[in-house]
Amino acid sequence: MELVAGCRDAADLRQIQQFLRQVTSLPVSASISQAAHQLMESFSLSHGLQIPDALIAATALEHRLTLYTKNRRHFQMIPGLTVHRPY
């Protein structure tokens, strides 16, 4: 959803849709939701963590995945989260 929200026009949306057909989507489980809530309590006031980023981080932590993002600063304060800028 965050990728779609960042689209500037229909061409961007088509590019995102094509990309998403190649990846696996992971559902937000109850444990991910609870972890995101804890991240919000810990980092929303001090670092401005937003709900979408908390859900993304919690999903990566739950599945022990590296998070690839151009916005490393949104996630750098979260302990245990491996963040990599792809380019």
> How big a fraction of the residues is strand?
under 5%
Radius of gyration: 14 Å
Question: Residue ranges: pLDDT <50 for 5 or more in a row?
Answer: none
Order of helical and strand elements:
HHHHEE
Q: Roughly what is the average pLDDT, rounded to an integer?
A: 95
Spatial separation of the terminal alpha carbons = 21 Å
What's the main sheet like?
2 strands, parallel
What portion of residues is helical?
40-55%
Spatial shape = globular
Number of helices: 4
Order of neighbouring strands in the sheet with most strands? 1-2
Helices and strands: which structural class? mainly alpha
Beta strands, count: 2
Brief digest:
The protein is mainly alpha-helical. It is built from four helices and two strands.
Can you describe what's shown?
The chain is mainly alpha-helical. About 50% of the residues lie in helices and about 5% in strands. The chain has a two-stranded parallel sheet. Helix 3 crosses helix 4 (about 50-60). The model has no long low-confidence stretch (mean pLDDT about 95).
